[in-house]
Amino acid sequence: MQIDRRTFLKSAAAGAVAVAINKPAAEEVRNGMPYRALGRTGEMVSLLCIGGSHIGQRRVSEKDAIAIMRTAVDEGVNFFDNAWAYYDGVSEERMGKALKDGYRDKVFLMTKHKGRTPENARRYLEDSLRRLDVDVIDLWQFHEVIRPEEPGEIYTSGAIEVALKAKEEGKIRYIGCTGHHYPFIQAEMITRGFPWDAIQMPLNVFDHHFRSFEKEVLPLATERGIGVIAMKTLGGSPGAIPRTGAASVSECLRYAMSLPVATVCSGIDSMEILRENLRTAKTFTPMSAEEKAELLARTAQNAVDGAHETYKTAWHRDIQRSMTQNRPT
Length: 329
What we know:
Blueprint: H1 5-15, E1 27-30, E2 33-37, E3 44-46, E4 48-50, H2 62-74, E5 79-80, H3 90-98, E6 108-113, H4 118-132, E7 137-142, H5 150-156, H6 159-168, E8 172-178, H7 183-191, E9 198-202, H8 213-216, H9 218-223, E10 227-231, H10 240-244, H11 249-257, E11 263-266, H12 271-282, H13 289-303, H14 310-313, H15 317-326
Parallel strand pairs: 4-5, 4-11, 5-6, 6-7, 7-8, 8-9, 9-10, 10-11
Antiparallel strand pairs: 1-2, 2-3
């Protein structure tokens, strides 16, 4: 997609309202849960977000998954994450069932897709609307933009135009994108100029030390007023960072929550984990500079080569080949 001068200037002006990079977004409290502004959208979202992948796992029953989601809403959570690809649609279908009985009106609903052509993007959107059994998705994100060629594909194929058309039709309200492996690829999604409403990225205490989204992408997003959704705050599933002993679950969550993010996406597959994460969110206070420095010093050795952030380092061979051929010099 070619961004004209008027669109660019409008986006730049909107970015002027961005928050400072070293401070969390302004908050209010509802039902004991901190709420933050989702970038320049004007939406207020809960500091804790329910991750969509875990609730679709086979070992979690549909009944339990629905109970987890509804309890989260009752406790003040209003941001729900999901994706077309999660468990062949089971995650979206279960979430759709959880949103019955008035719960849809209480939730800011997000799902993601890998549509890189107009045809695929339209199909994924209609599939997600059907599975979730809703008329509108609040935030629809281009999912897992991980290859160097993908920003160009998304911008020029007509896929963004599909999202804009869906917004005009009232099927979606906001448009975003996500990245996982290399920060420079997600940075390009921003710097090419489309005024994204939200962006989702790995943010954790290990990421700070290795191929860092916190250092390379987060500043670009905040200075443009793009709402930031933190993911993989434990280093990826299942809890890679706590398993090393370098930091506890609560420290990992609190570190991410202390960044200028709107919400922290957490994979929750039991009522026990939900209760623990609710407690962390509801008692949250930002880390002091001293606390942050101590935690970063303590985790540096485990983080240096990315061995525990396997979503960055355990690549398929064809993606590695693409990186070798296409990475900028």
